[in-house]
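Entry:
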Amino acid sequence: MSSVGLSAEYLKAGTSSFYEFAAAVAPHVLPTARARDLGSGDAGALSPHGTTIIAACFAGGVILAGDRRATAGPMIAQRELEKVHPADEFSMIGFAGSVGLGIDLVRLFQLELEHYEKLEGSSLSLVGKANRLATMIRGNLPLAMQGLVAVPLFAGWDHAAGRGRIFSYDPTGGRYEEHEFHSIGSGSVFARGSLKKLYRNDLDAAGAATAVIQALYDAADDDSATGGPDVARRIYPVIMIAGPDGVERVAQQGVAELVGRMLAGRQERPDGPGAPLS
């Protein structure tokens, strides 16, 4: 299509959403186009799966972390997969489920937010971003029904509310705000159980990072699809923090130090720190 034709189609579409524009003009470029090429079987078995993602709020923002493992059945398909990414300057997204679909979802969402900001001259509110993501997930329902499911966990700094917020989703595009902390993926039940004992409202960024590392370790301890820190290969969880100054990834050296202190404590108490009975 020529640039003139593309401009005409774009003006005709009349939307600030890149996703809606692409769906109207060139739907074959979207991940949902794969649905018509699949049979009626469980297509999810064809794709490696990634887990586990954790988010937790603290006084100055919100933290999002993920392990690095992807599995294909009983096999480890990838040891260094990054499932946590910045969505834009003040928000972050992580995914669990089909890896190829999850990576496409992240990239498309990043483009969606960048496209809106360039077109409108301002960025969406955090809730607006969360709603756009829900629309994109809803468009993936045909693939989800065939077994190709990727579910995101979205978090960021809400300037209007002056705090970090967390949003989870179901495969149909349902959006839910989570309070304090949340986790998705096959190890999520163990991660949330760990955070129930470790989380406090007065945690700072370092305390929140320590808590999510402990929770990821507990998830890996009970869920074979979740990878724990690999000290020998220097593979550590990806941790990002969103606050009033934007999104920042915790440097690998900083994560390694937190992991080192956590592992030293586990030498004395293998099941991790205990919660006071009060």
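The chain has a mean pLDDT of 88.
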